[in-house]
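Fresh eyes needed here. I'd like your take on this protein's tokenised backbone:
***
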Amino acid sequence: MAQPDPAGRTGRPVEREWLPPFVLDLYGVLSPLRRGRGDPTWRTVADGATIWRVSTTPQGPATLAIRRRADGTVRATGWGPGAAWEIDGLPSLLGADDDPSSFTAYHPIVADARRRMPGMRLGSTRRIWDTLLPAILEQKVTGTEARRSFRELCRRFGAPAPGPEGVVPAGMRVPPTPARIRAVPDWEWHRAGVDHARRRAILHCAVVAHRLERAAELRGEEGRQLLRRVPGIGVWTAAEVAQRAWGDPDAVSFGDFHVPNTVGHALLGHDLDDVGMLEVLAPYVPQRQRAVRYIEASGFRRPRFGPRFSPRDYRDM
């Protein structure tokens, strides 16, 4: 009698080849999904030729290996109960639902970035939970803190990535599911360096996670408003999710510590607050986030005039 295979290590892979009808920057489209160099849900191998991604889906966990061939064809191989769901959504993941053709650049740095990076598109994971959990962890802390907490939660409460050993890169993990997150004891949150405010927001979302997935269908402002109904989810978090879950071209991360100043220095040569950024990006409505992505992808870095914030370790508090 065959034994159960919850990790999907012995199941047959699901495969698909797809030729994008547009110029594709594979890494550029997928890189916003990566949560730091140590992200256990993401790997790049063979000098970036293959990108590995582990996710949850409505059908269960999935591991996806995505390769781009010299002729432009993308080949994806998936393992796990959710592999077919991920494979079906491959074009959306790589930006097929995005349409940058109507975008107009009103600033030289944006126009230059668009010219140099024709393959930059906004991809859609079609999945709220996998982007919502790390987004909440990134609220009001340094990136180092947030990435450390995400790694801890994935390693301690996520399952091993589906797929055969020796093929799937070692150490890859599935993000913790809402059910698993609800069962995390208090001391484990402390051990992962997650403070009370972020913990409460995550738990609130875990309780209604199945309802929040509808935001990816609603899209736009309506989708962001649905997310913001949950206590602890504000404009910034909703925008971070919208950018990734449905490739929202207008979801700017207002409330971010860095983005207003980066936009301000790139476009005007000086710092901005959220009000100033709202004003300078007004001509780009309804594609303000696309303008921000071009600025970020251009390689521009604003001057630094002071020390960086030091990461806090809530495990010692």
Q: What stands out?
A: The first strand starts at residue 14 and ends at 18.
